[in-house]
Amino acid sequence: KSLGCFSPSEQLESFCHLLHFLSAPRRIQGARPISLSAAATGIFGMGRGGDDNGNQKLTLQDVAELIQKKECHRMVVMAGAGISTPSGIPDFRSPGSGLYSNLQQYDIPYPEAIFELAYFFHNPKPFFTLAKELYPGNYRPNYSHYFLRLLHDKGLLLRLYTQNIDGLERIAGIPPDKLVEAHGTFATATCTVCRRSYPGEDFRGDVMADKIPHCPVCTGLIKPDIVFFGEQLPQRFFLHVADFPMADVLFIIGTSLEVQPFASLADAVRSSIPRVLINRDLVGPFAYQPQYNDVALLGDVVSGVEKFVELMAWKEEMQELIQRETEKKYFGANR
Ligand SMILES: [Zn+2]
């Protein structure tokens, strides 16, 4: 079964991950932890490489050296909520958070309803309250995002697959063609009636003024291109079919790998390449089927990224990059 064929339940699960993003860092979904491809691998008894071949367990230092020697230079990164929590992205389910109180006034039946099309057409206001919060500008990228930017600057980033909808990867300066925003983006929007596509910026004024945006051509309701329940993942997601087999190192940062189809991408790379997990906990194949070329850096995500940056001797470059980007913000050149 190809990764590209999503059943409705898989789409729902994928969508649940979007919700998981919003409620990070806690786990809220009882999603299945094992991907189909990994299960099949187990049945046929052919793991990824493995110690049976006498391979030494790979270390983070080894991975750093492989990249320094340009033996690995086509990095694919999978990222999740864990890279954005240090930026203060809010949990809209948490009583006490400003966003939660803002949503309460709408009397929504349950928080997930704001990502349901039927509810959106009934009452789009709760969704646009969230949109107002997450529209580019309210939050700043953190060290993890700039690390990914540095990978791109160094020509090492083949593609970044993110589950986040906060747009912080773009704000950090990673070009859209290097990005797959698996659960959509506020950067573009589509008319729900005539399907015309618009830059998200066109409706920024409306959203900020608590006005529901409407299509200038047909007056239909405008919806930012965030993936709702039952909707297809963006076309760009299918780039994985080429990207993952081409990757020569995979980084998985700040995601619990709980939800398909995103999670099974971790098994879509060639079995011989190093996989590095930087995350609070051991997750996905790193937990249930660790291989000799898997490296896990557990704990705080930013600390994990810093550790790798140090091994690469990129500390100064990171500081310079962050300083440059922060100055841009003050001079208003980043928007
Ligand atoms: Zn329209």
UniProtKB/TrEMBL annotation:
<dbReference type="InterPro" id="IPR018247">
    <property type="entry name" value="EF_Hand_1_Ca_BS"/>
</dbReference>
<dbReference type="GO" id="GO:0070403">
    <property type="term" value="F:NAD+ binding"/>
</dbReference>
<dbReference type="GO" id="GO:2000304">
    <property type="term" value="P:positive regulation of ceramide biosynthetic process"/>
</dbReference>
<feature type="binding site">
    <location>
        <position position="191"/>
    </location>
    <ligand>
        <name>Zn(2+)</name>
    </ligand>
</feature>
<feature type="binding site">
    <location>
        <begin position="255"/>
        <end position="256"/>
    </location>
    <ligand>
        <name>NAD(+)</name>
    </ligand>
</feature>
<keyword id="KW-0808">Transferase</keyword>
<dbReference type="InterPro" id="IPR026591">
    <property type="entry name" value="Sirtuin_cat_small_dom_sf"/>
</dbReference>
<protein>
    <recommendedName>
        <fullName>NAD-dependent protein deacetylase</fullName>
        <ecNumber>2.3.1.286</ecNumber>
    </recommendedName>
</protein>
<feature type="binding site">
    <location>
        <position position="215"/>
    </location>
    <ligand>
        <name>Zn(2+)</name>
    </ligand>
</feature>
<dbReference type="GO" id="GO:0141208">
    <property type="term" value="F:NAD-dependent protein lysine delactylase activity"/>
</dbReference>
<dbReference type="GO" id="GO:1903109">
    <property type="term" value="P:positive regulation of mitochondrial transcription"/>
</dbReference>
<dbReference type="GO" id="GO:0006099">
    <property type="term" value="P:tricarboxylic acid cycle"/>
</dbReference>
<dbReference type="InterPro" id="IPR029035">
    <property type="entry name" value="DHS-like_NAD/FAD-binding_dom"/>
</dbReference>
<dbReference type="Pfam" id="PF02146">
    <property type="entry name" value="SIR2"/>
</dbReference>
<feature type="domain" description="Deacetylase sirtuin-type">
    <location>
        <begin position="53"/>
        <end position="315"/>
    </location>
</feature>
<dbReference type="GO" id="GO:0005759">
    <property type="term" value="C:mitochondrial matrix"/>
</dbReference>
<dbReference type="InterPro" id="IPR017328">
    <property type="entry name" value="Sirtuin_class_I"/>
</dbReference>
<feature type="binding site">
    <location>
        <begin position="81"/>
        <end position="85"/>
    </location>
    <ligand>
        <name>NAD(+)</name>
    </ligand>
</feature>
<dbReference type="InterPro" id="IPR026590">
    <property type="entry name" value="Ssirtuin_cat_dom"/>
</dbReference>
<feature type="binding site">
    <location>
        <position position="194"/>
    </location>
    <ligand>
        <name>Zn(2+)</name>
    </ligand>
</feature>
<dbReference type="GO" id="GO:0008270">
    <property type="term" value="F:zinc ion binding"/>
</dbReference>
<feature type="binding site">
    <location>
        <position position="218"/>
    </location>
    <ligand>
        <name>Zn(2+)</name>
    </ligand>
</feature>
<dbReference type="GO" id="GO:0043565">
    <property type="term" value="F:sequence-specific DNA binding"/>
</dbReference>
<dbReference type="InterPro" id="IPR003000">
    <property type="entry name" value="Sirtuin"/>
</dbReference>
<dbReference type="GO" id="GO:0005743">
    <property type="term" value="C:mitochondrial inner membrane"/>
</dbReference>
<feature type="binding site">
    <location>
        <begin position="91"/>
        <end position="93"/>
    </location>
    <ligand>
        <name>NAD(+)</name>
    </ligand>
</feature>
<dbReference type="GO" id="GO:0017136">
    <property type="term" value="F:histone deacetylase activity, NAD-dependent"/>
</dbReference>
<dbReference type="GO" id="GO:0005634">
    <property type="term" value="C:nucleus"/>
</dbReference>
<feature type="binding site">
    <location>
        <begin position="279"/>
        <end position="281"/>
    </location>
    <ligand>
        <name>NAD(+)</name>
    </ligand>
</feature>
<keyword id="KW-0520">NAD</keyword>
<keyword id="KW-0479">Metal-binding</keyword>
<dbReference type="GO" id="GO:1903862">
    <property type="term" value="P:positive regulation of oxidative phosphorylation"/>
</dbReference>
<feature type="active site" description="Proton acceptor">
    <location>
        <position position="183"/>
    </location>
</feature>
<comment type="function">
    <text>NAD-dependent protein deacetylase.</text>
</comment>
<dbReference type="GO" id="GO:0032991">
    <property type="term" value="C:protein-containing complex"/>
</dbReference>
<dbReference type="InterPro" id="IPR050134">
    <property type="entry name" value="NAD-dep_sirtuin_deacylases"/>
</dbReference>
<comment type="similarity">
    <text>Belongs to the sirtuin family. Class I subfamily.</text>
</comment>
<feature type="binding site">
    <location>
        <begin position="163"/>
        <end position="166"/>
    </location>
    <ligand>
        <name>NAD(+)</name>
    </ligand>
</feature>
<keyword id="KW-0862">Zinc</keyword>
